[in-house]
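Shapes recur. Our protein:

. . .
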Amino acid sequence: MNGMAIFCGNANPRLAKDICECLHVPLTEVLVGRFSEGEIRVKIQENIRGKDVFVIQPTCPPTNDNLMELLILIDAARRASADRITAVIPYYGYARQDRKDQPRVPITAKLVANLIVAAGVNRVLTMDLHANQIQGFFDIPVDHLYAINSLCNYFNEKKIRNLVVVSPDVGGIKMARAYAKQLSAGLAIVDKRRMSPEKTEVMHILGSVKGKKVVLVDDMVATAGSLIEAIEALTKKGVTEVYAAISHGILSGNALEKIQHCKALKEIVITDSIPFLKAKDNPKVKVVTVAPLLAEAIHRIHNEESVSCLFDVTR
């Protein structure tokens, strides 16, 4: 692993350290602070000239601060004569506005992609994008990983019987089918209608769920409103237990309170793509790590090896 430098901002330092432990390399020392007026101050404390640099920084809440840190870190690495810069973005913020579905709205997923490329990055490594087409918003190589294997390992160890995997909408059926295959489970779909960007109304349940235990799979959960509505609809159809497998646990607003008071929800399993600091106070929330997955991808990129085997979701 000679010639590699890995550093991070303030978004998720724990994940960056875990990745470095998997790779048996030290985390490059970087100063990421603030000037008195609030502007972000960055200084790379070690020589990275000619090195293969990996900047680990999910653009999770506070999204604007973490995005600006990422852009400034990339610029600092470019001006320090790094040979190649890979932005490792486990969670890609501003991804929900990925198309113009209403008049006079922006496409922020494309805007952020333009900013990252303009900052000087050569490659992007990310995980479970809100929409797969976001990969095409970049004019540079993008490696898109999936957390399905890490999450399925957790549920396989629990050995839950009489299980059905449920997609929260029609758009997620392909990924839900991959979960169902790995967990040897049935498949069902929640048919819902979106009333606003953060509110939906469940219309129908497509598939047999009566008397079953359910794993709801989705790429992210923010306010948990849609999740709780889907659980309530499944409970009315005779589901006995509900688990949730979520790649990115944003858990904003009063999401944790909703989860805690939802009796039908046994557990919500999230990854550490976004730091979750209240795990000990929330027994229903379980966190699985994706550090080994990201570390293996970084290792392969650095050694110019194929990364395609890590994209397999039907293992």
Q: What stands out?
A: The chain has two domains: 4-146+292-311, 148-288. The mean pLDDT is 93. The first helix runs from residue 13 to 23. The domain at 148-288 is CATH 3.40.50.2020 (Rossmann fold).
